[in-house]
Amino acid sequence: MDKCLNELIKISRRVGRNPLLAQGASGNTSVKTDDGKFMFIKASGTALADMSKNKGWRRINLEKARGIIKDKKFAGMAGQKREAQIAKRLVGCCEDRTKGNCRPSIEANLHVLLDKYVIHIHPIAVGAFLNAKNGKAELEKLLANEKFPPLWIPYANPGYSLAKKIINLTGKYQKKYRRLPEILFLEKHGLFVSAANSVDALQLVSKVIKKCSSKLTCPTVKQIKKPNAEEIKNVKLIIRHAFPTEAVHFFYNKNLAAYLQKNLTGELLKAGALNPNEIIYLKGHIVWAESKKQIAKSPKPSIAFLIKNLGLFVIGSDKAASIARQVVEASLFMRYNGRKFGGIVALTNSEQNFIRNCGA
Ligand SMILES: [Zn+2]
């Protein structure tokens, strides 16, 4: 097996098995081959932790892939059509023997712009800054001693617009510092790190997480009150009735209890979905309900309901519900901390609609 691919599998599993870094199938990693001709990148829809010798990645022809965003025909095209065509073009850049129709991550267009090893994840410790009014300034303070400063990327719709923005900003960065940025913070989205080898790439992740975490806290509870079983049953019935569905799952743990018992949840959830991940895995906003009556009035589609004095209810398969729980817990943490940095910044309605209509 290619040595680079082996390294890619190692780093993907390492970051992918930690839900505080990447939830569900989110996040992606890549490596460019020594001859500079190809890039191995995580396949779309599979979890980083599941990457192996035989699956979870695609091999892309770098020259062909770098030409996609430069293609002028995409500039005037409507979002949905454009993103579908770009995804198709990326599949056309694949040169490997992978069976089936898994496509390379759509974020491949960003990976081609950076150094040999690239790790893109959605760490909750970084999200607390990426979704806060003063997040950029706080991150700059935290990393003020870096020889080469991190690059902040203001929010752009995933896909073509984001790639265009990163081309522009990395170009300016290269002119100023005569090198590519190692750390990129994507507002309301996630973290990119890029390095010449896998050890340095992983170290960059650890450094950023450690620095960010030093400023963050989360509420705790000593004991959790057991929710009423009859009430749980009732709420499940109400959700099933209001949102015709097969399965409603219930979650309650120390982490969720810490927010619910401190009566913080309603306030934290006033801001809408924080990032593309929440639209993908939660289908939109997390619903907060103080009474059973409020559930039926919830906006549709909703799949995650935090109910006062009870816990979290999620609609969907076992797997989807367990990812949704991770995303809800991540969201609460980011919101709780984001408040301290000038207030929570969420996606606008048009940003949310773009992800619903064009994917991410
Ligand atoms: Zn992402």
Q: How would you characterize this protein structure?
A:
- The chain is α+β, with helices and mostly antiparallel strands.
- The chain folds into two domains: 3-213, Class II aldolase/adducin N-terminal domain (L-fuculose-1-phosphate Aldolase, 3-Layer(aba) Sandwich); 229-358, L-fuculose-1-phosphate Aldolase (3-Layer(aba) Sandwich).
- It is 44% helix and 14% strand.
- It contains 15 helices and eleven strands.
- The chain has helices at 3-16, 62-70, 79-92, 108-111, 124-130, 135-142, 160-177, 198-213, 229-242, 254-261, 265-268, 276-282, 292-296, 318-338, 349-358, and strands at residues 28-32, 38-42, 57-61, 117-121, 151-153, 183-186, 190-195, 248-251, 287-289, 304-307, 311-315.
- Strands 3-2-1-4-7-6-5 form a seven-stranded mixed beta sheet, with helices on both faces. It has a four-stranded mixed beta sheet with strand order 8-11-10-9, with helices on both faces.
- Helix 5 (124-130) crosses helix 14 (318-338) and helix 12 (276-282) runs antiparallel to helix 14 (318-338).
- The radius of gyration is 21 Å and the shape is globular.
- The protein starts with a helix and ends with a helix.
- The mean pLDDT is 92.
